[in-house]
Write a structure and sequence with these properties.
The chain is an alpha/beta fold. The chain contains 10 helices and 8 strands. It starts with a strand and ends with a helix.
Length: 280
């Protein structure tokens, strides 16, 4: 069963709307007993989350979601069970956050040039001075009634060919996986069905990922359909990757699914938590 597992959650340390302790409390109330906090390119929220998890009696794996550039596109790799004190991991994440800071300012400049001023200042306020993501800009534009939803903002303003698009310059795949494994963690490709990849490209991504030391594929994701889950299960088996589950939860009203609503893994998968590192 996977209904009480969730290995992909976000807090206010990146672009979630709940503080790490609040997130742990909501997860526990939803019946989740094994989980990971995986904020974008930062481990800042882990200490607060760990303290809350101990109090609530839930099992927390320290995690992170690392931004990767592969084949000219952005891919996300989740690291589970990492040591947040690992120096190489923190150096790598610090470099990604530096780019994020510049990108946020550049998005603000480009939107202002398109007639939408002061979005950077509002996005920074929403982030409470922490990491500023495109999601913060999306929430700003929704609040200004310039779009109906966060997803609508991405389509109209933040993707290639739109006024607020700034291409990502992220970590190479092998480097990101190396940071995770070097920090004692397990690397998982996040929400693979969301990437515009055909079957052959996804297989090549999986092969390069496994060769670099990656071990898992997020088979069940909050952003996947039931058909996506079944197809990703086939890919995981064919690539020899363990199967993970993750809601990609960002907070109430900001997520694909509410906590505790993930479907079980399709038959035939080997769950990630049966692997040596996460089963310990």
């Amino acid at each position: 069963m996977s209904l009480d597992h969730d290995f992909h959650l976000h807090s206010t340390a990146s672009d979630g709307t709940l503080a790490p302790a609040q997130l742990m409390e909501r997860a526990a109330l939803a019946g989740i007993r094994t989980l990971a906090l995986t904020d974008h390119d930062t481990t800042e929220g882990l200490a607060e989350a760990a303290e809350a998890a101990r109090r609530l009696g839930v099992r927390l794996f320290p995690g992170v979601e690392i931004s990767v550039t592969w084949n000219g596109m952005t891919v996300h790799v989740v690291g589970l069970g990492v040591d947040p004190a690992d120096a190489a991991l923190q150096r790598g994440l610090a470099g990604l956050r530096e780019f994020r800071d510049w990108r946020a300012e550049e998005i603000g400049r480009r939107l202002a040039k398109d007639g939408i001023p002061e979005t950077f200042e509002q996005a920074r306020a929403l982030s409470s001075g922490r990491l500023i993501s495109r999601t913060h800009f999306a929430r700003v534009l929704v609040e200004r009634n310039l779009a109906e939803s966060v997803r609508d903002v991405f389509r109209r303003y933040l993707v290639r060919g739109r006024p607020g698009h700034v291409p990502g310059q992220w970590a190479p795949l092998g480097e990101a996986v190396g940071w995770i494994t070097g920090a004692g963690g397990q690397a998982v490709i996040a929400h693979p069905a969301r990437y515009p990849l055909n079957r052959g490209q996804l297989r090549r991504l999986g092969q390069e990922f496994r060769a670099a030391g990656g071990v898992g594929l997020e088979v069940v994701s909050g952003s996947h359909s039931a058909d996506d889950n079944r197809l990703m299960a086939i890919h995981a088996q064919g690539l020899g990757l363990l199967a993970s589950v993750g809601s990609d939860y960002h907070g109430p009203g900001q997520s694909y699914l509410e906590l505790g609503r993930l479907p079980p893994l399709p038959a035939g998968c080997t769950p990630l938590w049966q692997g040596e590192a996460l089963a310990a």
